[in-house]
Predict the 3D structure of the following.
Amino acid sequence: MFLSEPAREALRKSQNIGILTGAGISAESGIPTFRAKDGLWSKFKPEELANIQAFMRNPKLVWEWYQYRRNIITEAEPNLGHHALAQWEQQHDNFTLITQNVDGLHARAGSQNIVELHGNILRNRCLTCGNVSEIEEVNFKGTVPLCTCGGMLRPDVVWFGEMLPPEALNAAFSAAENADIFLSVGTSALVHPAASLPEIAKSSGAFLFEINLEPTPLTPYADAFLEGPSGEILPKLLTQWQTERTK
Ligand SMILES: [Zn+2]
């Protein structure tokens, strides 16, 4: 992997590392974006199911879709990109992983300091009392899982039209502002506010790496664009970081 001298210097001097990951890293583990033209649920667009109005209208339908997605996710495995990020975190103190993904694969790879911008599909939240629970505790009585308080449970993810969790958003902005290297990994850099994080990092002085299969609107702005699968690029970048740090 070719890295320019400024990129290697940025790795060498890195103190605060910020990472933003998106659908691309999950796709490499076989998790689709659910926008495919074929498949069981192809007649629905995600935005038609992932919103509170659709859920209130037909919670059973929305739950069936989420159970289908959960099954795909629980059968998927973290890939080499997820593992490289988990190893990197173990070797460096100030390391913040921000993800737009809801599949929990970063945690399964061993990452710990994870900022989940869009929630986590493997958790439920009660519409009545707000209690958040793991899926193992789901009680599928009838058609829709219920909380112990009797309220309806929904997946603990951010739906279309909803605000991002403020704590996660604040943590993400703060990590971007403090980063001296920032990696945008497998994200189209189109959906705000996540898309603004690399820009914030760069305008706060970070060296901006972008890792993606193809150029994005962020690419002209990146200090280093590394084209390819994150499962190939991230392990190489970690090795390069380790090499630079020993200099
Ligand atoms: Zn409840």
